[in-house]
Amino acid sequence: MSQWVLLRTLFAHIPLLVKLAFTVLLSGIAAGAIVHVLEPSKFPTWFDGIWWAFVTVSTVGYGDFVPESTTTRLLAILLIFAGVGFMTLLVTSFAGAAVQINQSTREGGVSFLGEGHIIIIGWNERSRHTITTIKEEKPHTKIVLIDETLQELPNAYKGIHFVRGNSSEDAVLKQANIGLASTVLITASHQGNEFTADAFSVLTTLAVKAQNPSVYTIVELLTRDQVVNATRAGADKCISSTQLTGDILTSNVIHPNTSEVISKLFEFERMSLLEIRPIHERMVGKSFVSLLSETYNSGYLPLGIKRGEQMLIHPHATLVIEADDELIIIASQAK
Q: RCK C-terminal domain: from which residue to which, for each copy (predicted)?
């Protein structure tokens, strides 16, 4: 009795598609074997009988094998009613499963299985712009979007894998395959106050770094007060979007003639021309002004020097270049 209960339990856990496929396969083989036994002259081999059975079940009916005896024809009628019914149910089940998987993918319920991808957390105008720009510049980049407010991924973003849920939860991050991601971008939520939004970004950073300490993590913050906490949480780069926007607005107010220049510099096509390059050995010991003609003739314009954590923009002409310095440049558009 206990063995029968165990078998029933195991059978109940078998997926419906597997049950249907097994039923169709078994009924076809059984019917083919029986017709071979009943009419060996018409069905010379076991395979001929099985072939006829599956052709009949699939409603193709080539007509290359036709039963003649009454018994075999009754078996054919039974096979048509039972086998075709199971086959139809199998096909519709496959179609239903495909539709369900597609719907689950759009609604963020399917796990991502790739690697080397970029995870973008938060659905807002900044993340939309980031996704669009990345896809334009590098179309083959794999992107996973995590958001809990979005009900369904818009049709315009078909190449993006969507995961719906709270980005600070381990299960949601695992669904996005955080362990094999290359970069994580955490955008700030504008719902609620700035402190709450930044606190959630820091919490998400902790969850990300707990599962993949080596992933490069960029965090958008609304206040500079939380930069220290985000850095402690493991953020590799913190961007204070409020201060950045405020600086641009202030510059436009105080220096209105420079507004168009700033706007052009902040367009991605021109921002991508900004580079940080290592100092060549022959430049070490020279003054910054002596680099201008040499670098400009090479197709790029030096803006400043990166020395450790310091960014020296437009330094004094007599600044001496050191071995560990890096050169901040604007590369030529014709590079």
A: 259-335
Q: Domains along the chain? A: 11-106 (1.10.287.70), 118-245 (3.40.50.720), 273-335 (3.30.70.1450)
Distance CA 76, CA 56 (A): 8
Between the alpha carbon of residue 148 and those of residues 102, 108, 204, 294, the distances in Å are 19, 9, 13, 52
The H-assigned helical ranges of the chain are 2-12, 16-38, 46-57, 70-106, 125-137, 170-175, 194-211, 227-233, 241-254, 259-265, 268-271, 288-297
Phi-psi region of 220 (alpha: psi -120 to 50; beta: other; left: phi over 0): beta
Helix, strand or coil for residue 245? helix
Starting at the earlier edge strand, list the strands of the sheet with 274-278: 274-278, 326-331, 300-307, 310-313
Residue 8 pLDDT > 60, yes or no? no
Residue 278 confidence (pLDDT): 86
Indicate the residue type of 230.
A
Residue 281: pLDDT over 70: yes
The sheet that has 237-240: what strands, in order across it?
161-164, 143-147, 118-121, 183-186, 216-221, 237-240
- Tens digits of residue pLDDT in 241-265: 877 777 777 777 777 777 677 666 6
Reported confidence tier of residue 202, pLDDT bands at 50, 70, 90: very high
The radius of gyration of the chain's CA atoms, rounded to the nearest angstrom, is 33
Residue 32 and residue 191: Cα distance in Å, rounded? 66
